[in-house]
Amino acid sequence: MSGWLKIVGLGPGAETMITPEVSAALLEATDVVGYVPYVNRVAPRAGLVRHGSDNREEIRRAEQALQLALGGHQVVVVSSGDPGVFAMAAAVFEALEAGDAQWRTLDIQVLPGISAMLAASASVGAPLGHDFCCINLSDNLKPWALIEKRLRLAAEADFAMAFYNPRSRARPAGFERTLEVLREACGPDRLIIFARAVSTPEETIRVTTLEQATPDMADMRTLVIVGSQQTRLIERSGVPLVYTPRSAD
């Protein structure tokens, strides 16, 4: 058996958002490697070994996957959303660069998935319809000072902004500070969207303003989008529509 490694995205939650390309790779795999909740999204079957690990073991997980592939296994590394957006693709290449030279001979592919920010944007319309940026608010792998600098510069450039990992039990203060920075930089009337558990039965969507936003509106299952000055709201029954025009003044 010839080993290979595919790094895939399982999408934001719904099975219908897993691409056919990723589904085919999972059917061919002998091994699935990833964070336990994501591995559990892959149904067990004969001939498949599922290797689940803790959330903060990305490099060890990547090394395990590379070594399995070197040994002839057909390995799929799973992430939620898209594997190249704050996920396992970068971790695998980091391990590859620093590790066994034989790993570089492997057949390695990255198979894209539907990211949480795109699913969240689609749930309310098109708030990312013009220039936007994406920032991970977790300071586990970078200092908070760098996050705050990027927040201010993104606001100054008038990007719409998508935020991953806004608030956790271990990091309750970071999102509170984020809202303070954004109110200072963008003003109180800027639109903000809280999209939680998008595409799952637990999905909730809330559209409000920075003035009305509170830290407890977000958790680790929430994707937050803040509009630009150009972003517009269309009132209607139920969740309003939000979009950013394709042109800018």
UniProtKB/TrEMBL annotation:
<dbReference type="InterPro" id="IPR051810">
    <property type="entry name" value="Precorrin_MeTrfase"/>
</dbReference>
<dbReference type="InterPro" id="IPR014776">
    <property type="entry name" value="4pyrrole_Mease_sub2"/>
</dbReference>
<dbReference type="GO" id="GO:0032259">
    <property type="term" value="P:methylation"/>
</dbReference>
<keyword id="KW-0808">Transferase</keyword>
<dbReference type="GO" id="GO:0030789">
    <property type="term" value="F:precorrin-3B C17-methyltransferase activity"/>
</dbReference>
<dbReference type="Pfam" id="PF00590">
    <property type="entry name" value="TP_methylase"/>
</dbReference>
<dbReference type="InterPro" id="IPR035996">
    <property type="entry name" value="4pyrrol_Methylase_sf"/>
</dbReference>
<keyword id="KW-0489">Methyltransferase</keyword>
<dbReference type="InterPro" id="IPR006363">
    <property type="entry name" value="Cbl_synth_CobJ/CibH_dom"/>
</dbReference>
<feature type="domain" description="Tetrapyrrole methylase">
    <location>
        <begin position="7"/>
        <end position="213"/>
    </location>
</feature>
<keyword id="KW-0169">Cobalamin biosynthesis</keyword>
<protein>
    <submittedName>
        <fullName>Precorrin-3B C(17)-methyltransferase</fullName>
        <ecNumber>2.1.1.131</ecNumber>
    </submittedName>
</protein>
<dbReference type="InterPro" id="IPR000878">
    <property type="entry name" value="4pyrrol_Mease"/>
</dbReference>
<dbReference type="InterPro" id="IPR014777">
    <property type="entry name" value="4pyrrole_Mease_sub1"/>
</dbReference>
<keyword id="KW-0949">S-adenosyl-L-methionine</keyword>
<comment type="pathway">
    <text>Cofactor biosynthesis; adenosylcobalamin biosynthesis.</text>
</comment>
